[in-house]
Each structure stands twice: as structure tokens, then as C-alpha cells.
Amino acid sequence: MLFNSMQGSDGISTLSDYRVSLLNRSMQVDVRSMLGKSLTITIQTATTPRHLNGLVAGFALVGQEGEVDRYFVYEARVVPWFWLTTQKKEFRIYQDQSVPETIRQVLAPYGYPFEFALGEKYAPRTYCVQYDETDFQFISRLLEAEGIHYYFQHEEDKHILVMSDEVQNHKTVDGYKYVPYFTEDKLSLPQQDYMTHVAVYQDLRSGQYTTSDYNFKAPNVDLKTGQHIKLEHRHNESEVYEWPGNYADDPLGERYARQRMQEQHHVRDTRTLRSTARGVTTGSLFNLMYCPRVEENREYVVLGTRYDLKENNYHSVNVQGLAGSGAEQGRRCLFELTVQCAKLPLRPPRTTRKPRTQGPQTAVVVGPAGKEIWTNEYGQVKVHFHWDRYDKRDENSSCWIRVASSWASGNFGAIQVPRIGDEVIVDFLNGDPDYPIITGRVYNAAMMPPWKLPENATQMGLYSRSTPGGDYHTANIIRFEDKIGQEEVFIRAQKDMNTEIENDASSITGRDYVEFVGRDRVTKTRRSSKEIVDKNMRTDIGGNSTTTINGDFKVVIGMSSGPRDTGKEPKNVFSAFSDHAHDFALMSNESKGNGSYTLNVRGDTWNRAGGNATEVVTGDKAVSSRSMMLSARSALVQDAQDTVTITSGQASIQLTADGTIRISGTHIIINGKRIDLN
Fold first, then answer.
1. Among residues 391, 335, 326, 325, which one has the least CA distance to residue 364?
2. Can you tell me the distance from the alpha carbon of 494 to that of 501, in angstroms, rounded to the nearest whole number?
3. Distance in angstroms (rounded) separating the CA atoms of residues 484 and 482
4. Of 81, 362, 538, 586, whose CB is crowded by the most CB atoms within 10 A?
5. Given its phi and psi angles, is residue 477 left (phi above 0), alpha (psi -120 to 50 degrees) or beta?
């Protein structure tokens, strides 16, 4: 292949694009086989040769050249290897890596040379997502966000991608540290490297930049920051305000603000020059000399180059032996340079737009193997996104993601940590894939609702799961049934249930109330306790019963005691009975009898014993009544160890232990069919 001509351009932080015209005598060149091959154009300079190297991204047979069709013309589109990154689109998550580390990971599989020439340190980004972007778009926006530019250094058989953040990292080309400026009347000097046709351009820019952001880990910290420069033109007081600034602390915000201001102003003061200086390349430094506009004589960095290269026509003899039309005059080797003062910072404009999500999406909660819940102090979780082809569905799948709650306040509110395997709805703050937030949860075929639907569509509530190792039958439940006629509130505690009420509590049951305690029950009342039963009350005790009363004990029964009608029991009665051979005792709190027991019955009292009845009084006993009747079906025995006295008015009968019987009265009558007196 013979070089014919080249037009194209390259520039800092842009992909070079060369259109190279090539000649060949054959029409049979395999066009497809040329794709992807390395192509180098060599330009002779005043010192060492200059090379423009790239890959063939397109190749075409476009025609013939010459009056007698001596050569076939082919055209190659030559691009840098970095162009290959425009052909690969990806979704991928990068965590805890600095921007240079992330870019290194993206570029390494391509196998082409690249290097960093950085003066600043770059902190790791906790979470960075390549979201529906080509590798080129992803790398470009990361570089632009950090104020890093790139260019290419060309060699004979390769070119190197160089990424830099300082102009000081750029170098001059040997033999081209100083380049003269010639006016038009000196342009005919042969083989002379020079600059001409300077064009000076400035534009009006804002003199103030302000940005801010929010960090939920420091919610009360004002992260607003900004930069201001004094410009020597009118209307420089305009402010550019951007939010969010995509930073979480003041130092990083200040650096971004400084870079944003430098970005705005590095292109506001540029020059263009026409040049024949074949050794001055994009990214190189040079000093301009002898420009009539004196202030232009200073050091510059080349921001971009446009090429117009043409070789002599090639001559040959056609197949009939006829000579060609002769050589055309000279080669053409012209360059148009865009430059800026080397003392100004070089920051690439942020032209690569960060992708935005198209609404919420779902993901699956993940965590370490063997865990059922994986969270941190903020109740955040990690997820596997359905588009992520690289994660292992473990605790490293994503960043910690905040979970929206129905109520989130300072140490109060509602909380339920999504569990591993749950499908959640993920949205993104400001549509930014770097800032996911969980806004909801959904069921799926593997995670079905806790009760069968649609049969139980009238039910709603909460159905938890014991962990670890729980199943459907180990759960705490609060369930509401709204089906007409079957309305129900169901509460179940899988183990313990504790209720704490700081003030009053009231419970009203419209009909029956049943309470079952599987083991012991303790009720403690610090003050009084009152129980009112409008009708009957029954207490069944399977074992012993003990009641301890530190003060008095009083039982009041509403009817008078004793049956008024023979053979009939009273309706309202205080009854104490035992069906089996166990004791029933009412006791004062001290065995010595220092306490008291009072039984006050406003109505009747009736005591019945199915077997024997014994009453023991250790002290005196007095019985007082309007009338008294003692009746025994078999025998009545009254026994006293000392004296028995029966008194009625002036009459008395006294029986003493020595056998004496005394009968006293104003009138004694003895009646009997038979009376024996000894």
C-alpha cells in the first residue's frame, strides 16, 4: 500500500480520527482482512521521525486514480485503540476503588498500553456503577468528573494512552521547544518549521461556581462550597450553581469546586495557529517566538491538531507503455493547532452525560452464606440487581442501600429489615445509579404471601418468620379478618409476649371471654384490686389454694342466712366446700390469733357439711340471736369440762364436773308419766 493523503484530527480528551487514502495496483485487496490492523503514518521532521499510529476501523475501495487508471484508491479510517471501548456496552458495579483503579480494571482486558501521569491522590469511591454505558462513555465521564484529561503518545508500532491531571506532566518534543512565527510574506521558506495565522479567541464566562450535597451520615453538616475568580470583563458576577455535587465531605467538595471553575475557564482563552512544524504534536509543549502580537510569545500546550497531508503522485507506465502525465508539484504537510497557555490548568469539559435510570426496578436482597438477615446500624441491606452479571450474590454484591420506612424519626418510627431472598423495589436518588434506595417489597413465585389468595383476600396483617431456621409454623402474627360476619383480630406470639402500659388500660368484651394459661400465672397490683361480677362466679381449683391477707378479710353476701322455707336453699349464698378429702381453711395472718376474721352477711346464712362438721375455738365463743333452735336427728350432746349453765330469766340449770345439778327458779314444775327419785 502506498500513502496518498490524510485528513483528520486529534485532540486532548477526544478520539483521533484519521481518513487515510492509500494506493494499490490491485483491485483484489481483501477489504475485510484490513480491519483491526495497526497502521502507522511516518512524518519526517527536523530531528527524529514523527509517527501517527492507530487501528483500521474501516476500510473501503473507493475508486481509481490517474488519467490512465494506474492505481486503485483505498480509504482507511484510522482510530486509536481506545476507540474500541466505544464498541462494548456494559452494566457493572465497582466498589471501594479510586477512579484510576477502576479505569485500570476496565482497560486491562483490551491488552493495549496505557499509563497514568497524575499529581493528585484519588480517594476510593464506595460505589460506582457503569450503567448502560460503553466503556468509553464510562471512562470518559469518570475522567471528566475528576478533572483528568487524556492524549496519545505515538511510536512506530504502537500508541500509548496517557491520562494526566497536570500540564506539568506534558513534555516538549526534541527540536521543537521554540517555534518561530512567520507572517504571510515569509511563507515560501522551504523546509522551515513555523507558525502563522494566529487567531485569538476569548469568551464570556461566569466568575463564580457553587455546589452542595447531602450526606445522611452527617445530616446536619452544610456541605456547600464554591469558587470565585475575578474576571476582567463585564457581567462576570453570574453564578453557576450545581446540585448534587457528588461528594460526601468538605475537602472533596472544595476540590471539585476548584476543578469545575478551572474547567469553565481553561477553554475561554485559546488560540488557533496554522503550522508546518511537523514535530509539534497534540499534548506537547512549545514556545512561540517572534509573533508581532507580543503577548502571544509564551509557552503553550497543544489541545488539538487538524491534519492535511498529501504525498506526490506516483508515476508509472501503463500496460501499453505510455508515460503518465508527469509529477505534480511537491508534498503538502499542513497542520492547524488549537493551543492554550501552559500556565493555565487543563481540565476537560464534562461533555459525557451521566446515565439516568428510567424509573424503579426490582432486586433481590443478598448476604453472606448461612445468614438470613444481613444489615448494619442504619438498617441498610445489600442486593443483587438482575442486570449484574458479575456479582456472586453475597455480601459484596452492592453497596449498603438505605431502606425506606413508613415512619423514620429519631429513635422512633417503624422498621422491618428486608431479609435475604426478599425481592425489593429499588429506585435511585435523582435517577443516579450510584445512589440506590429501597422503596418497597414485592412477592414473587418463590416468595408467596403468608396466606392463600384470593381465598383470603379479606385478610391483612403481619406474618413474621422466626430466624434462623424458622419455617411457616414459627411466626409472630397480627392478622385482621374483614369478611362480613367473621371479623376477627388475631394476635399470636411464637414465644413470649410482653405488654407494657404506662397509664390506664381498658378492655371491653361484648360476650364471652376465655383465658387459658398453660403454666403459672402471676398478677400483681400495687394498689387496690376490684372485680365485679353481675351474676354468678365460680372458681375451680384442681390443687391447693392459699390466700394470704395482711389486714382484715371481709365477705359480704347480699341475702339473709339460712333457709326460710323448709327444704329450700337460699339463692344468694356464700358457699365453701370440698368434694374430696382435702382441707379447707380460712386463717388470720398469725397462728396466735392476733388477727381477726369478720363475716358480715346482710341476708341469710346457711352452712352445710355433707359429712361431719367440727368447729374449734381456742378462746371464748359467744353466739347471739333473736331465737335459736338446735335439732339433731339422732342425738344431741353438749359436753363441758367444767360447767354447763342454761339460763332463761330467773330460771337456771347448772351442771358441774363433780356431778352436781342445780335447778333454780321461782316455780319448778316436774311433769312425767313416771318419775324416779333416788
1. 391
2. 21
3. 6
4. 81
5. beta
Q: Which amino acid is at 350?
A: R
CA distance 3 to 76: 11
Q: Is the distance from CB of 297 to CB of 288 less than 8 angstroms?
A: yes
Q: Closest by alpha carbon to 529, among 545, 547, 515, 514? A: 547
Q: How far is CA 591 from CA 219, 547, 551, 552, in A?
A: 70, 14, 14, 15
User: For the segment 420-456, what is each residue's pLDDT rounded down to a tens digit?
Assistant: 999 999 999 999 999 999 999 999 999 999 999 999 9
C-alpha cell at 629: 333452735
φ and ψ of 499, to 5 deg? -120, 125
Q: 190 versus 254: which is more confidently predicted?
A: 254
Buried b (16+ CB within 10 A) or exposed e, 39-62: bebebebeeeebbbbbbbbebeee
Question: Cell triple for residue 268?
Answer: 475561554
pLDDT attached to residue 395: 94
- The torsion region of residue 657 among left (phi > 0), alpha (psi -120 to 50) and beta comes to alpha
Cell of 455: 381465598
Q: How far is CA 486 from CA 455, 462, 483, 512, 514, in A?
A: 14, 19, 5, 16, 18
Residues 183, 292: contact at Cβ < 8 Å? yes
User: For strand 14-24 and strand 38-43, is the pairing parallel, antiparallel, or unpaired?
Assistant: unpaired
Q: What is the pLDDT of residue 650?
A: 87
Q: Are strands 159-164 and 149-154 parallel, antiparallel or unpaired?
A: antiparallel
Give the H/E segment covering residue 463: strand 459-463
Cis peptide before 219, with omega less than 30 degrees from 0?
A: no
Instruction: Compute the chain's Rg from CA coordinates.
Output: 53
- C-alpha cell belonging to residue 422: 426478599
| Backbone φ and ψ of 119, nearest 5° | -100, -25
Q: List the 225-228 sheet strands across, edge first.
A: 225-228, 208-211, 239-242
**335 in Cβ contact with 429 (< 8 Å):** no
State the cell numbers at 220: 446536619
pTM of the shown model: 0.79
Mean pLDDT of the chain: 86
pLDDT of residue 77: 97
Whole-angstrom distance, CA of residue 599 vs CA of residue 586? 11
Predicted local distance difference test score (pLDDT) of residue 143:
97
CA distances to 36, 237, 335, 547 from 577, rounded to whole Å, are 107, 101, 121, 16
**Domains of the chain from N-terminus onward:** 2-80 (2.30.110.50), 83-165 (3.55.50.10), 361-442 (2.40.50.230), 452-494 (no CATH)
Rounded to whole angstroms, what are the CA distances from 180 to 195, 272, 302, 338?
6, 15, 15, 16
